[in-house]
């Protein structure tokens, strides 16, 4: 086995087409800057109106859109959306974070004797978002009802409306029409064209994260009722060391809404059975629930078919499955596997094991000083021997959002397949595997508000059909004699034995929850949290942020001069604040930045600026203690 490590760490190259998020942002900047762009945008943005009161997409952060009126006044609401209005304080603060009266006992919750599960129409549901179509057991094995692949969400599941983003083609057309010579924004008449660059990525050496935190702007409202959301997560009322828990370890695992907890209970109370084999009522219920969850995952990822969704234990098992099936069949001696320097150990070790067995070569894409993949270096690594590119969509250690669309397109043009590790992405970003053209996409349920012990491999059906099984046993066979075995087609071929039925069903409930909030809303809100935290941390002497890419999601890794990361983690824990300190199972990328460990607060949509203030106060106190 040969491992070629990166030799160049310099020069953030950004060649090739920008990804869809980038294009959305470029268009958004246009609309904010260019008179008349609104009329043009009206052609492309569904629901877009030229009226001054109508929302015009504007840039709030990389990859995120907030609404702003054409006059430039921010408005916390999006027309027609069920959004909260800004109050005098940033509504990103929870005005009434659930308190627990000093007790460590979780607050009692309405249970209603098993409702809402046995009564899906659930008007009595304790969850603010659950309506008539709360999605409890649905054996919707086909995807006919799937809304446009761009959203992967049915309109009737949406309370908070998405922003109706144009597609990449539409944006390029729009850019071309407005500025035929090139796609750089011309200075807007009357606008102070020199005051800021046309696009954030044209800022050169200027650090994007130097900009003032938008969360300090009272106009930036959470696009959902943050207090109601927090009440959906009973554990957030826990007290730790006498303080209300602050859960900033979301990159390690996320907390579970009551609807997921109840769904698991309901399964065991009313549906528990093994699936597929038995011909009785509970087997039918369990099978419906399990296959209904598969259908939800397929919609969530924008897959073409439920047959492309394989349930596994988590992202780690998912990658091992691909290594042991696709890898064993299609990767041989001197073939090459490309990973990035950002990878979690789960997306390194299985490839090393495969490479050791097969005599294959692992090549590593370097990152620049901000922690972003250098596409030019990646281009140089691709060649006719490349069989697989396996990269993360969001780095768990740094938070970098990688340009997976370009990575996949480049790999395909070199004839290679691509696995995207979506473990850190699916809870923060809208994913559409068909739009990405990913060959494999993997994630873990527990990082997207679902149970532990359940995860997903998405694989293109035509590809899965070519793969051998990984494990043998029950469920995955069509016929067995002592001489030979015929296997089931995908996905059953890859699900030997009794799977984690209940937790798959729980994952379905978690997806329902996330879809109700809307990933676009989640992304918008979380990015504001990240900006707020980043700005706060940067203002503390002795703090060094690790990972400052323009495109980031929900992770603010840092080290504090004069302190071990465990000391910072311990001081935070004493105040009830849970962060991960350590190497985050991503040692190569931390070493790229000259550290062995970081403190890693990581955010979810139920976190608030008030909680970030509590973290900042501890870090500031530690920093001051060292200096005095
Ligand atoms: N990839 C990434 C990017 C991750 O963050 C993680 C979990 N930290 C994994 C893979 C592995 O996930 P799991 O432990 O749930 O299998």
UniProtKB/TrEMBL annotation:
<keyword id="KW-0808">Transferase</keyword>
<dbReference type="InterPro" id="IPR010970">
    <property type="entry name" value="Cys_dSase_SufS"/>
</dbReference>
<feature type="compositionally biased region" description="Polar residues">
    <location>
        <begin position="84"/>
        <end position="106"/>
    </location>
</feature>
<dbReference type="InterPro" id="IPR015421">
    <property type="entry name" value="PyrdxlP-dep_Trfase_major"/>
</dbReference>
<dbReference type="InterPro" id="IPR015424">
    <property type="entry name" value="PyrdxlP-dep_Trfase"/>
</dbReference>
<dbReference type="InterPro" id="IPR000192">
    <property type="entry name" value="Aminotrans_V_dom"/>
</dbReference>
<keyword id="KW-0663">Pyridoxal phosphate</keyword>
<feature type="compositionally biased region" description="Low complexity">
    <location>
        <begin position="59"/>
        <end position="78"/>
    </location>
</feature>
<dbReference type="Pfam" id="PF00266">
    <property type="entry name" value="Aminotran_5"/>
</dbReference>
<comment type="similarity">
    <text>Belongs to the class-V pyridoxal-phosphate-dependent aminotransferase family. Csd subfamily.</text>
</comment>
<feature type="domain" description="Aminotransferase class V">
    <location>
        <begin position="246"/>
        <end position="615"/>
    </location>
</feature>
<dbReference type="InterPro" id="IPR015422">
    <property type="entry name" value="PyrdxlP-dep_Trfase_small"/>
</dbReference>
<protein>
    <recommendedName>
        <fullName>cysteine desulfurase</fullName>
        <ecNumber>2.8.1.7</ecNumber>
    </recommendedName>
</protein>
<feature type="region of interest" description="Disordered">
    <location>
        <begin position="59"/>
        <end position="119"/>
    </location>
</feature>
């Amino acid at each position: 086995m040969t491992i070629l490590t990166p030799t160049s760490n310099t020069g953030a190259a950004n060649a090739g087409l920008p990804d869809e998020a980038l294009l959305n942002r470029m268009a958004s900047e246009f609309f904010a800057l260019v008179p008349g762009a609104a009329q043009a945008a009206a052609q492309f943005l569904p629901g877009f109106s030229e009226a001054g009161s109508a929302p015009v997409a504007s840039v709030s952060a990389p990859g995120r859109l907030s609404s702003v009126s054409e006059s430039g006044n921010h408005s916390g609401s999006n027309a027609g959306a069920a959004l909260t209005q800004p109050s005098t304080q940033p509504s990103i603060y929870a005005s009434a974070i659930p308190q627990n009266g000093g007790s460590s006992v979780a607050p009692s919750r309405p249970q209603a004797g098993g409702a809402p599960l046995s009564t899906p129409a659930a008007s009595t549901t304790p969850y603010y978002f659950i309506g008539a179509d709360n999605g409890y057991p649905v054996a919707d094995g086909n995807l006919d009802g799937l809304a446009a692949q761009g959203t992967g969400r049915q309109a009737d599941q949406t309370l908070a409306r998405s922003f109706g983003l144009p597609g990449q083609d539409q944006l390029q057309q729009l850019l071309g029409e407005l500025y035929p010579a090139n796609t750089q924004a011309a200075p807007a008449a009357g606008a102070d064209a020199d005051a800021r660059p046309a696009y954030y990525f044209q800022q050169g050496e200027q650090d994007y994260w130097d900009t003032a935190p938008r969360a300090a702007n009272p106009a930036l409202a959470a696009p959902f009722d943050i207090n109601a959301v927090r009440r959906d997560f009973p554990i957030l009322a826990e007290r730790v060391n006498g303080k209300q828990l602050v859960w900033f370890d979301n990159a390690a695992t996320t907390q579970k809404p009551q609807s997921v907890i109840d769904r698991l209970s309901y399964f065991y109370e009313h549906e528990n059975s093994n699936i597929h084999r038995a011909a009785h009522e509970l087997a039918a219920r369990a099978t419906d629930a399990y296959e209904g969850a598969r259908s939800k995952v397929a919609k969530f990822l924008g897959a073409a078919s439920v047959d492309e969704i394989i349930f596994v234990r988590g992202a780690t098992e998912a990658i091992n499955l691909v290594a042991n099936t696709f890898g064993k069949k299609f990767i041989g001696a001197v073939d090459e596997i490309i990973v990035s320097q950002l990878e979690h150990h789960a997306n390194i070790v299985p490839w090393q094991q495969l490479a050791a067995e097969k005599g294959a070569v692992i090549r590593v894409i370097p990152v620049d000083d901000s922690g972003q993949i250098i596409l030019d270096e990646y281009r140089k690594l691709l060649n006719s021997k490349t069989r697989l590119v396996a990269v993360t969509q969001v780095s768990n250690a740094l938070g970098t959002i990688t340009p997976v669309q370009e990575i996949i397109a480049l790999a395909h043009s070199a004839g290679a397949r691509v696995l995207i590790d979506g473990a850190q992405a699916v809870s923060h970003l809208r994913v559409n595997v068909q739009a990405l053209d990913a060959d494999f996409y993997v994630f873990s349920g527990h990082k997207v508000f679902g149970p532990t012990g359940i995860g997903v491999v998405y694989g293109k059906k035509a590809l899965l059909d070519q793969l051998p099984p990984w494990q043998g046993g029950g469920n995955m066979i069509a016929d067995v004699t002592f001489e030979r075995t015929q296997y089931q087609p995908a996905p059953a071929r890859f699900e030997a034995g009794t799977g984690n039925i209940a937790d798959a069903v729980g994952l379905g409930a978690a997806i329902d929850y996330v879809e109700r909030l809307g990933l676009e809303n989640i992304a918008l809100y979380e990015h504001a949290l990240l900006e707020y935290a980043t700005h706060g941390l940067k203002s503390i002497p002795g703090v060094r942020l690790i990972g400052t890419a323009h495109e980031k999601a929900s992770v603010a890794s840092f080290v504090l001069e004069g302190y071990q990361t465990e000391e910072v983690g311990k001081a935070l824990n004493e105040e009830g604040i849970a962060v991960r300190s350590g190497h985050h199972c991503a040692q190569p990328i931390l070493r790229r930045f000259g550290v062995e460990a970081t403190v890693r607060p990581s955010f979810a949509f139920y976190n608030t600026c008030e909680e970030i203030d509590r973290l900042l106060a501890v870090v500031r106190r530690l920093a001051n203690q060292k200096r005095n």
